């Protein structure tokens, strides 16, 4: 079924598209003219990416919802919250508090520490490099994904647009009282949406990824709030002092610090 609505000159509308537009006209809803602007979604995403990557110092708070699908095709959602503080290119602190794990990731520019606060264990990796390099390394060596990491990379636009087959500027929406541009993108296995704050500070406010290759299409939702840019973090913002009684372990042993409890498989059977 062709679900794409294309309003550019000379386009041929499919039956579903004509039906949708007719229904909108009957209800008095304006047609989504923004979808007709070729490249609008890419331009807004590029402006957001350029703005965020230019910020040498930033901090924000976030909330996440991760959906999994059980073998009985029951969709379950797990939620967590946290904070991010960053001083480019290689200093950052990311915390995450959920119902099943409390974790911090700290880089002082020379060492990266993964601290399992709940288990009072930590692992350190010397000379880890830039934020981009740490993100890539964690994805292959540890069960730890930094929430919204792709949005904070040095070249987020290239990373986000990799594999994109279709892009739309849906229009405008409001996230936590903030007016945003609503964008939608399609990849082979995922659909994803992003809401970008309107104005001279185009920061991402909401990010949703839908897994099309998994039954029941589970989603990952990230909400970003309390963005602060410009001010340098406190001198000790990226220091890690092992708490009393904590134990240093190999990073490969930190295998139960995910956002979902051990034994639950994201997406269920594939």
Number of domains: 1
Radius of gyration: 21 Å
Biggest sheet: strand arrangement: 7-8-9-10-11-1-2-3-4-5-6-12
Whole-number mean pLDDT:
83
Helical residue percent band: 10-25%
Please report the distance between the alpha carbons of the first and last residues: 23 Å
Model regions low in confidence, pLDDT < 50 over at least 5 residues: 1-31
Number of strands: 12
CATH superfamily: Lipoprotein localisation LolA/LolB/LppX
Shape: globular
**What fraction strand?**
35-45%
The CATH class turns out to be: Mainly Beta
Helix count from the secondary structure assignment: 5
Order of helices and strands: HHEEEEEEHHHEEEEEE
CATH architecture: Clam
By CATH, the topology is outer membrane lipoprotein receptor (LolB), chain A
**Main sheet summary:** 12 strands, mixed
Summarize the structure.
The protein is α+β, with helices and mostly antiparallel strands. It contains five helices and twelve strands. It has a single domain (40-253), classed as Clam (outer membrane lipoprotein receptor (LolB), chain A).
